[in-house]
TrEMBL record:
DNA-binding in keyword set: yes
Protein name (database record): LysR family transcriptional regulator
Keyword match Transcription: yes
Record domain HTH lysR-type: where: 1-59
Record InterPro entries: LysR-type_TF_proteobact-type, LysR_HTH_N, LysR_subst-bd, WH-like_DNA-bd_sf, WH_DNA-bd_sf
PROSITE patterns in UniProt: HTH_LYSR (PS50931)
UniProt cross-references to Pfam families, sorted A to Z: HTH_1 (PF00126), LysR_substrate (PF03466)
Record keywords, A-Z: DNA-binding, Transcription, Transcription regulation
GO molecular function, one term: sequence-specific DNA binding
Top-level lineage group: Bacteria
Organism: Chelatococcus reniformis
Protein family per UniProt: Belongs to the LysR transcriptional regulatory family.
Length: 303
């Protein structure tokens, strides 16, 4: 039995919750992974996992064993990083997840610069606005806007997204330009964004001279996708607070017009998030530092 391979297989089964997802994340046949875990259980002479037809759970002995194995593998990875050339030349697969808006308009256009610096890192980019199971789906990190509610994760704030209140010229021709945020509660329509995690609509927020106003307003279109949200604003469905890095380009082309410019919209922090038991490898570390520089330039906190 390859004990190191068996230890890594066991850890992935625990983190993924079943053998099928664990095998897929390791690019290993399920039968091979099963044999490794069975060999490990035979080696330690105890059941580490409890298997049913629907799920895999960790036994009390398995839970204690898992915690020690994770620490051991982390220390080994750190030792390998210190003693190998990877310290100077990071390499390998890096699985990242982010929203479509960030992927299309910020991350993908800048990736040639990243690969020019780190040509041996393969970026696997998951694009979704839904909440991602970082451990179960074997994701190294996610880029997410907003507050991080899961306190079990490690989050590094790398910037802040600014927003611009705007609407399509055709909408303003039909409904007029609002002079105060409260007008959005009765005389206007808004484009609404709802959270993929909670299903709740996110309010428009306005700040001026210490006054803070939250507006939900009436909407004919609500979406949980950033690109669809901006497209709905461009097509005249209502007033929206769109990310500045995208809205300003559309304002320059005349597809959108700024409104309520004497009120500022609250910015939203953006974080790189990763699991606490995931070793911050060289490839992940250089990506996090690069992303922090990228968002400082492409998604500034003020206009």
């Amino acid at each position: 039995m390859d004990q190191m391979a068996a230890l890594r297989a066991f850890v992935r089964v625990v983190e993924a919750g079943n053998f099928t997802r664990a095998a897929a994340s390791l690019a290993m046949p399920k039968a091979t992974l099963t044999k490794l875990v069975q060999g490990l259980e035979a080696h330690v002479r105890t059941h580490l996992l409890a298997r049913t037809t629907r799920r895999v759970t960790v036994t009390p002995d398995g839970a204690a064993y898992y915690e020690r194995v994770v620490r051991l593998l982390t220390e080994l990875d750190e030792l390998d990083s210190t003693m190998s050339s990877q310290q100077a030349k990071p390499s390998g697969r890096l699985r990242i997840d982010t929203s479509a808006l960030v992927a299309v308009h910020i991350l993908i256009p800048a990736l040639p610069n990243f690969h020019a610096r780190y040509p041996d890192i393969q970026v696997d980019l998951g694009v979704t606005d839904r909440a991602v199971d970082l451990v179960g789906e074997n994701v190294d990190c996610v880029l997410r806007a907003g507050d991080i509610v899961d306190q079990s994760l490690i989050a590094r704030r790398i910037g802040q997204l600014a927003f611009v209140t705007c609407a399509a010229p055709g909408y303003l021709t039909r409904y007029g330009e609002p002079r105060h945020p409260r007008e959005l509660e009765g005389d206007h329509f808004t484009v609404s964004y709802f959270s993929a995690r909670t299903g709740r609509n996110v309010p428009l927020e306005f700040v001026r001279d210490g006054e803070h106003i939250e507006i939900y307003g009436r909407h004919r279109v609500a979406t949980n996708d950033g690109n669809a949200f901006v497209a709905a604003a461009v097509h005249g469905y209502g007033i929206a607070q769109a990310p500045a890095f995208m809205a300003e380009r559309l304002i320059e082309t005349g597809e959108l017009m700024p409104v309520l410019s004497d009120w500022s919209a609250d910015g939203v922090p953006i974080h790189v998030v990763y699991p606490p038991n995931r070793h911050l490898s060289n490839k992940l570390r250089v990506f996090v530092d690069w992303a922090a520089d990228l968002f400082a330039v492409d998604a500034p906190s003020s206009r």
